[in-house]
Write a structure and sequence with these properties.
Nuclear Transport Factor 2, Chain: A, 28% strand
């Protein structure tokens, strides 16, 4: 093993996203750096609806449901969506991240693309961007 465990190519930190089986071991494809691991964690968190996980009923977001809620204007909806992104990330993602920017673009009535620029608190020189499409339900 070399250097820092959180950026060691020999030490798996978590399951990569999208989730895929590997041919070698029959297990899931793994992440080997903290930034890639956190990126996968955020993807999974944003795509999980609150209540979907039986033993972690508070895990996830309400993004899908919120797209069908009634709001006075688009700015109000964007603010509610941002809060429903920032709070779960702060509660569930480790190591902690700093969110630099959240862009939300509505593609049609009940579909939006969320782009999040973030960095690890412990490694501010490493930045990443996640794009997630959310469909309302």
């Amino acid at each position: 093993m070399t250097g820092n465990m959180f950026n060691d190519e020999d030490v798996a930190l978590g399951v990569d996203y999208p989730i895929q089986m590997t041919g070698k071991s029959g297990g899931f494809k793994q992440t080997y750096t903290s930034l890639r691991d956190v990126t996968s964690q955020i993807h999974i968190l944003l795509r999980t609806q609150i209540g979907e996980r039986i033993h972690q009923p508070d895990y996830g977001t309400n993004l899908h449901r919120l797209l069908f809620e009634s709001y006075q204007n688009e700015e109000e909806l964007i603010e509610v969506l941002r809060t429903n992104i920032e709070e779960p990330i702060a509660a569930w993602i480790a190591p902690p991240v700093t969110i630099n920017n959240i862009d939300i673009v509505f593609e049609d009535f009940n579909r939006a693309t969320v782009s999040i620029d973030f960095q690890l608190v412990s490694r501010p020189e490493e930045n990443a961007r996640i794009n997630v499409t959310v469909n309302g339900q």
